[in-house]
Specification:
By secondary structure, the chain is α/β, with parallel strands linked by helices. Helix content is 38%, strand content 26%. A 5-stranded mixed beta sheet has the order 1-2-3-4-5, sandwiched between helices. The mean pLDDT is 89.
Length: 136
């Protein structure tokens, strides 16, 4: 007998006050409902201007392309509170990178008030949140 078990992802939250950044480190199988819950919880408290979704240990295979657009639509009202902020997606596989780029394209088409980017390298992603250097 075969029994399918719906395993939820674990989402660990790390804050970097010096970058005004919250990192959501996702481990395991991620579903749309879990994303929505994490977004709601993030905005229900003191939220940061910048976010990063670390999907290097996540399985996002259950999320379909239409759901990628749905999460952006769901988040759009919230994103207005973070105008001028940045959101990064950090991935380790080609499939997740492709899905991240799909999300990035939807962000660009939606005129989001938050800049989005997809990275494969943690250090590069963290450096993206550094303030730009100014000349004298």
């Amino acid at each position: 007998m075969f029994v399918e078990v719906d395993v939820m992802a674990e989402i660990k939250i790390h804050r970097f006050p010096n970058k005004d950044l919250t990192v959501f480190a996702v481990i395991g199988a991620l579903r749309l409902a879990e994303l929505k819950t994490a977004v709601d919880e993030f905005y229900s408290g003191k939220f940061t201007l910048n976010t990063m979704w670390d999907l290097r240990e996540a399985d996002i295979s259950a999320i379909e392309v239409g759901e990628v657009k749905e999460i952006l639509d769901y988040s759009m009202e919230y994103l207005k509170r973070r105008e001028g902020g940045r959101s990064a997606i950090l991935v380790s596989t080609d499939v997740n990178y492709g899905m991240g780029r799909v999300f990035d394209t939807f962000v660009e088409l939606s005129s989001s008030p938050v800049e989005n980017n997809v990275f494969r390298d943690y250090e590069e992603a963290m450096a993206w949140f550094e303030p730009p250097m100014t000349g004298n």
